[in-house]
Amino acid sequence: MRFATLLADERQSQPVTDWAARIGWIVGLILFIALVYWLMREGWKWRGLLQSGIPDLPRIPEEPGAVRLELTGRYHGTTVAGQWLERIVAHGLGVRSRVELTLTEQGLEVVRPGATDFFVPAAHLRGARLDKGIAGKVLTEGGLLVITWEHDGAAYDSGFRSDRAAEHTAWVAALGAPPAENAPAADAASTADSTTTEGAR
Fold first, then answer.
1. How far apart are CA 172 and CA 28, in angstroms?
2. Contact 161, 168 (CB under 8 A)
């Protein structure tokens, strides 16, 4: 009889949930996420303030000339040339978006639905290369088309990913390789290591 009573009591007993502790953890997590978001937003605003001296980008001309190449895909950001983590946020360049990219006789048209369009005159295009990362976005090796261009005496890299990645090579061929001084820092370091190794031999 006593055994049956104990068994019944055991079946009726349920683990007690410490709701106060659980709610405390949830509130703490929400506050932490909010803090991280606020810090990111403030960092973005501060970077934009530091880059406020960058002049407005040229607008797409009404008569851009004959079309040489076109692609649709994603715009992944713009950085200081050769420094893939130095993101540029001024004039909406830090906003990732869909993109319609057109190379014409006059230059490069960058049309971005939901974001700011911009134009790079042909005389300011400095070349293109295949890469794997830009502005915190990392893809497979060669999965990113990086176009180097100049504006107000400074060089920049803009990263694009076509919906058909095979199209990237045609853009590299059309625009040529960027100047050596704009090569990514990683490539420069690799070259330096290679030179050191050869010297040791």
1. 49
2. no
Three-state SS for the chain is CHHHHHHHHHHHCCCCCCHHHHHHHHHHHHHHHHHHHHHHHHHHHHHHHHCCCCCCCCCCCCCCCCEEEEEEEEEEEEEECCCCCCECCHHHCCCCEEEEEEEECCEEEEECCCCCCEEEEHHHEEEEEEECEECCEECCCCCEEEEEEEECCEEEEEEEEECCHHHHHHHHHHHCCCCHHHCCHHHHHHHHHHHHHHHHC
Q: Distance (Å, rounded) from C-alpha 127 to C-alpha 110?
A: 16
Going 72 to 73 to 77 to 81, the CA torsion angle's sign is negative
Handedness of CA 72, 146, 66, 166 (dihedral sign): negative
CA dihedral 78, 83, 87, 90 (to 10 degrees): -70
Q: Token pair of 124, please? A: 């300011």
Record the pTM.
Answer: 0.69
Among 79, 51, 182, 73, which residue's Cα sits nearest to residue 137?
79
Q: Is the pLDDT of residue 167 over 90?
A: yes
* Amino acid, single-letter form, for residue 83: Q
Give residue 14's pLDDT band: very low, low, confident or very high (50, 70, 90). Answer: low
**pLDDT beyond 50 at 200:** no
Rounded Cα distance between 193 and 134, Å, is 23
